[in-house]
Fold this sequence. Notes:
alpha/beta; Rossmann fold; Helical scaffold and wing domains of SecA; 16 helices
Amino acid sequence: MIWCSKPCAKKFNAVVEEIVKLTQAGRPVLVGTTSVEISELVSRMLQMKKIKHQVLNAKQHQREAEIVAEAGKPGTVTIATNMAGRGTDIKLTPESKAAGGLAIVGTERHESRRVDRQLRGRSGRQGDPGSSQFYVSLEDNLMRLFMPERIARIMDRLGLKEGEVISHSMVTNSIERAQKKVEENNFGIRKRLLEYDNVMNSQREVIYKRRRNALHGERLQLDILTMLFDTCDDIVTTGKAAESLENFKLNILSLLGFDFKISEDDFAKLASEIISERLYEEALAHYHQKNKAAAEKSFPIVTDIFKTRGGTIEDILVPFTDGVKQIGVSANLKKCVESKNAELIKSMEKMITLAIIDQQWKEHLRDMDDLKQSVQNAVYEQKDPLLIYKFEGFEAFKRFIAKVNEETISFLMKADIPIREADQVQEARQAKRQRLSEQKEESRSLLQGGGAQPQGPQRQVEEK
Length: 464
C-alpha cells in the first residue's frame, strides 16, 4: 500500500508511475477504480504519458467482452470500475505469465472488503501468477470519514514521506476496521428499511388474499357477507354515538340504498348488536332481491343475443352503475343464459370488488409513502420514527379496510343495469372502434379550435 497524505495529485501520479513500470516489464495491468469519474481521470493521465489503454466502465459496457479478451496480453492496461468485468476471467498469454502475471492496481480502498477481495481475485486465478497493490490517501472518502485521527498523527510522528510504501499491519488493520464500520452502518440501514417494508408486507398479505379470493372466486361470497356485516356494524356504532335516528337512517339510505324501519324507542333502547343484526338481515334480503331484479331485467336481451348471434359471440360486456360510477362487467354469454344470469351477477361481484380494491390500494400506497416521509421528523423530538410509522400505518390500514368495505358494499347494494332498449346492444369490437373514431374526431376538433365534442350512441350491453 502506498501512503499519501494529500488528495489525488500525488496519489494518482504514483499510480501512473507504477502502471508505466509494470507495462515496461511486460505485465498486463488491471486498474481498479471506485467510480466512472476516477477511471476517466486515470485515463487522461495515461494519455498524457502516451500509454495505450482501454477503459471498461458503464459507458463502454457494449465492448466489455472485447476489452476483457485483450486484457491478458503483455503490456495491456485496462481501467475498470468495480462493477465492470464481473464474472469473467482474464486469460493470460504465456508471455504475460512469464513476466509475472496480471498486476492489480487499486486507486483506493472500497467501503466494502468484499469488493476489494473481488478486485484482488482477478489475478492469481487457477494457479496463474499475479500481484495486487492499493494506493491510499488520507483524503479518500473511507479514510476521511472513518479513519481515526491518531493514524495521521502517527504517520507524521514516524516521519513518513509522501509516496512511501506502507505495509505495517497497524495501518492495514485500521483500514479494515474502517471498512467494517461502513459495512455495519450499511447493514443497519438495510435492516431498518426491511423493518419499514415489513409493515407494508403484512398489509399486502391481507389485501392480496382478499383480492385473490375475488379473482379466483374463492370465498368471495363469504368476503361480501363479512364486508356487509362490518359496514352495518359501523353504521350502527356511528349512529349510536351521534344519538341521532335521522342521521342513522340517512347513512343507511346513502350507503345501502334502502329505508330501514326502526322506531325512536327501539333505536334508543336496543343494544347495538341487536340493531346491527336486524340491519344486516334486511340489507342481505334487499341485496338478493336487487340482484334478482337486475338479472331478470337483462335476461331477455342476453337471451336474444344468444339466439341470434350466440355462435359467434363468447362474452358480453354489461355496464353496472350505482348512479355515480359505472363499471363494465364481462361475463360468458352461454353461462349467463344457462344460469339465468346468475353468472352475470357473480361476475359483477367479482369485477366490482377487484376494481374498488385496486383503486383504494393505490391511494393507500401513496398515503403510506407520505407517512414514511413525515415520520422522519420525529427524530428531532427524540422519538423512534419506526414505532410511529408502525402505529400510524396500522391506523391508516384500518381506515383503508373500512373504506374498501364501505365503497364495495355501497356499490354492490345499489348496482343496477341501465338497460332501456334491446337495439342498444352492440358488439364490443364495434363499440371500441367507434370510441376510437370519436376520440380522433374530438382531438381534430380541438386542434382546429372547435368547442363541440361528438357524442356517440349510448351503449348499455356490449358484446365481445
